[in-house]
Amino acid sequence: APTEERDCIIDLTASSMSIHPGASIDAWEKGYPAQTWWNWESWSVDSGTAGGSHGGQGSLGTNQEHLANPVYGNLYDPVTAGAGGSARSGGGVIKLDIAGTLTVDGKITVNGQNGSGPGAGGSVNIRTDVLTGDGEITSEGGYWNSNQYGHGSGGRIAVLEYSLLAGAFSEEHI
Does residue 119 sit in helix, strand or coil? Predict the structure, then answer.
C-alpha cells in the first residue's frame, strides 16, 4: 500500500513496449489504504463490510446503515488510485506513454484488495499509437465470498491518442 499521504504511481514512457505472456505490470492493492479515498480524505464506518468506491459506488453487503465513499476521479483521463474499503486497500495507478506500439500479451492490473471491506479498482491510463496483443487490462474492485460483505467498485481504464486497437483490444472485443 502507498506510504501515508503519498500516491504510488507506476509511470512509464517508452518508444515501444511488450508485456509477454506470464509477465505483468501490477499495482494490485497499491491504492489508498482502508477507509481512505481521493486526496487522502478519510471515510469511516462502524463495520468492516463496505466496499470502496472509485469508478462506481462500492456496495455495502447486508449492512445498509453505512455509506461507502463517493464516486470520484476523471472518467476521460484517469490518474486516481482506488479508495480503500472499510478494511482493505484500493488499486494503484499505472500510466503508460508509449509513442509507438504497446503489445500486451500478459497483464496490466490495478485491482482492489479482496477480503472483508474490499478496496476499489485503481486507474490505468495508456497513451499509445497502437495497442495490440491477447492479454488483459483490469481495474476490478475487490470482493469477498459472502453476501454479508460489500464489494469494491471497479476503477477506470482509458486508452488515449491511439490510431489502432487490435487483437484482444480491438473495438469488436471491448
Answer: coil
What is the distance between the alpha carbons of residues 28 and 139, in angstroms, rounded to a whole number? 9
- For residue 68, what pLDDT is reported? 78
pLDDT, tens only, 93-117:
999 999 999 999 999 999 999 998 8
Q: What is the mean pLDDT of residues 147-159?
A: 90
> Which residue has 486497500 as its cell numbers?
89
In angstroms, the CA 140 to CA 129 distance is 25
Phi, psi torsion values for 95, nearest 5 degrees: -115, 125
Q: Give residue-wise pLDDT tens across range 31-46.
A: 999 999 999 999 877 6
Question: 107: helix, coil or strand?
Answer: strand
Judged by DSSP in three states, 168 sits in helix
Helix (H) or strand (E) holding 129: strand 123-132
Note whether 112 and 89 are within 8 A (CB). yes
Torsion (CA) 55, 56, 57, 58 in degrees, nearest 10: -70
Cell of 3: 506510504
Residue type present at position 174: I
